[in-house]
Design a protein that fits this description.
The complex is a heterodimer. By secondary structure, chain A is of the alpha+beta class. In chain A, helix 1 crosses helix 2, helix 2 runs antiparallel to helix 4 and helix 2 packs parallel to helix 11. The radius of gyration of chain A is 25 Å and the shape is elongated. Chain B is rod-shaped and about 45 Å long. The termini of chain B are far apart. Classes of the chains: A alpha+beta, B mainly alpha. Chains A and B meet through helix 8, helix 9 and helix 11 of A and helix 1 of B.
Chain lengths: 345, 34
């Protein structure tokens, strides 16, 4: 959050997150190589074990990254994981790059560009067992590098939130390429039922979590559509009772009418505040955030807004629309028009 | 996320995973058979 340009700034939590991720990666590779040496002895060289450890580590990290989004939509406890997902993505790219570099060097006799050319020119595209699966890994790596290179907020600002998101949704293409890379590579050269089952479990997990998150959103939209049908012409929309909102947290409501604006209604002690659900930074869901230091805090990148006014605390300049809130008995109601549209703000 | 991007998440990603699941099963059978 910045009044100059929108940069995601470092803080203590992010440093801890990154330190933990790097330690986890190094520990995983060391553990994999150690167990590999203990089980297989000298049958497999250290270089091959490291290549495999890096490959598995990058692939597992990719699964974690792909699961964070739908998990955060399903469970509020997963929201903090979104906070540094891009850092995890960049780390995963470095691990994949290390795997590719080491594998190219090792299997190509450490011959630099010539080794890469020799590996890529081998194989037969018409054969299953001899398919040059390295091409699939290389294409996936190019996608991951482009995503890592454009992960900074500088690119988010210059590409626009929607364009940047489209670019970064190519992670699913990279995921598909990597699954094919494994299925036509190591699965063909060393068939293993256990490895296949692990791969199928990973794919199922990603697919199931995305389906469950989509199903939850669909149910929410249907419930809101029913409310809209009955409250189409009213100036105030029912949200919920005061007991149904946890302190410092919010509930999501869709306003009746044609715009179907989504509103985050927050409880802060005895007060209630209603803001647009869309963060001014990257469109993050403010209803999934919480009030920190008196400010509504976006779960994606920590952008903050004063709950009563929708403005970011000085010197920052971001602002989101706010709405009137009233309590009728125990029922919370929110005004159907933003304050700005009525000239209040 | 735009509505189109939400649709991609809701529909295309599960479909992609289903296709990958089937492909991996078939690839495993190829590997075992060959």
């Amino acid at each position: 959050m910045s009044n100059v340009y929108r940069i995601v700034q470092w803080n203590r939590h992010k440093r801890w997150y990154d330190a933990l991720a790097v330690t986890g990666i190094v520990g995983f590779v060391a553990l994999f190589v150690g167990i590999g040496k203990a089980v297989k002895g000298d049958a497999v060289s250290d270089e091959v074990l490291i290549i495999r450890a890096l490959a598995l580590c990058a692939f597992l990290l990719l699964h974690v990254i792909l699961c964070i989004g739908p998990l955060a939509r399903l469970c509020t406890w997963a929201s903090p994981l979104l906070y540094n997902r891009r850092h995890l993505g960049v780390l995963m790219c470095f691990v994949a790059l290390a795997h590719a570099a080491l594998a190219t060097g090792y299997y190509g006799g450490f011959g630099g560009v010539f080794a890469l050319r020799a590996i890529l020119s081998a194989g037969d595209f018409r054969s299953i067992s001899g398919f040059p699966f390295e091409w699939l890994g290389l294409c996936a790596l190019v996608v991951l590098i482009v995503m890592a290179a454009t992960s900074h907020d500088f690119w988010l600002k210059n590409l626009g939130a929607a364009g940047w998101k489209w670019l970064h949704m190519s992670v699913y293409g990279a995921y598909a390429l990597l699954v094919l890379h494994v299925a036509l590579g190591t699965m063909q050269s060393e068939p293993s039922l256990a490895r296949t089952l692990v791969l199928l479990t990973g794919i199922s997990l990603v697919g199931t979590l995305h389906s469950a998150a989509a199903w939850k959103e669909l149910k929410q939209l249907r419930a809101e559509a029913a409310i809209i049908a009955t409250e189409a012409a009213v100036d105030w929309a029912d949200v919920c009772t005061i007991d149904e909102i946890t302190d410092k947290r919010a509930v999501l409501v869709t306003l009746p009418g044609t715009c179907k604006e989504q509103i985050a209604v927050y409880k802060d002690g005895d007060a209630f505040h209603a803001l647009s659900n869309v963060c001014a930074h990257q469109g993050g869901p403010l209803s999934e955030g919480k009030i920190v230091d008196g400010c509504v805090t976006c779960p994606w990148h920590g952008y903050q807004y004063i709950a009563a006014t929708g403005a970011s605390p000085p010197p920052f300049t971001e602002r989101v629309p706010t709405y009137d809130v009233r309590v009728q008995g125990k029922q919370i109601q929110v005004g159907c028009k933003p304050r700005k549209a009525r000239g209040v703000q | 996320m735009t509505p189109q991007q939400r649709k991609v998440h809701a529909l295309l990603v599960p479909m992609l995973c289903c296709a990958l699941f089937v492909f991996v099963v078939v690839a495993h059978r190829w590997a075992v058979a060959s």
